[in-house]
Amino acid sequence: MSAEEQVKLKDFGNIFSLEGKVAVVTGGSRGLGLHAASGLLQAGCSKVYITSRKAQACDEAVAALNALPNKRPGAEAISVPADSAKMEELDRLAAEISKTTDHVDILFANAGATWGEKFDTHPESAFSKVMDLNVKSVFYTIQKLAPLLTAKATAEDPSRVIITASVAGIGIGTIGQNATPSYSVSKAAAIHLAKNLAVELGPRHILTNAIAPGFYPSKMASGLIELKGGFKELEQYSPNLRLGRPEDVAGLVVFLSSRASGHINGAVITTDGGAVHKGRL
């Protein structure tokens, strides 16, 4: 192949485009899920299904997303409330999505929970709840939506599964009075789940990757941020001297959903400004 042929990359101008793609975002009514959904719509997706446990939150998120001025003509966000922790609800979720699409190109498995309490009194019920939602429900969400993910996937145009893990699953998370052992362990498991599914689902033309966010201002993280000294303190701890912003996670999810990531499978990408490399989070 000549140098001239090598530099003519196939349609490079649209390498990040998601034109016409169909996406599902669990935990999509707020925080990282909502930021990602906004990015997916603005990158060209024709449908983005928003699901979380509370119907009102889903409806409010969809209203905001559908008001975006720069999405493609006819593109829409669709509310499908469901409790990801319940198997029957996951069956219903897949059935509801199937009523308005015959395939799914992108699944952002983002629903999750945390619990903070010291080691000596950490309740079994909380540990089980966090593990169930952050690990088991992620696996079964992917399983239930696998038929839709494989429906139009090919080796040249694979579907994508993106799992939200955390830097707490890589380094050591919060210990002491507000210890989060179940959260940290669940996110380590989510990372390993992504690696296993990359091998399992790769031959079915589904690429599976995980993202590992650090601190992003959100409802779930705000309490822990305050306990660790507040925004300014954590910004100083981060090597790039700031916390995560909406476009940081949206850009990463769009990248992992696009043709630009077509040969990335089983990867874990941190988005924390480098803080995980400084030791305990």
Automatic annotation (TrEMBL):
Keyword terms of this UniProt record: NADP, Oxidoreductase
Keyword Oxidoreductase among record annotations: yes
Pfam families: adh_short_C2
Keyword Acyltransferase listed: no
GO molecular function terms noted in the UniProt entry: oxidoreductase activity
Entry's family note: Belongs to the short-chain dehydrogenases/reductases (SDR) family.
PANTHER family (alphabetical): 7-ALPHA-HYDROXYSTEROID DEHYDROGENASE (PTHR43618), OXIDOREDUCTASE, SHORT-CHAIN DEHYDROGENASE_REDUCTASE FAMILY (AFU_ORTHOLOGUE AFUA_1G14540) (PTHR43618:SF12)
Protein name: Uncharacterized protein
Organism: Penicillium malachiteum
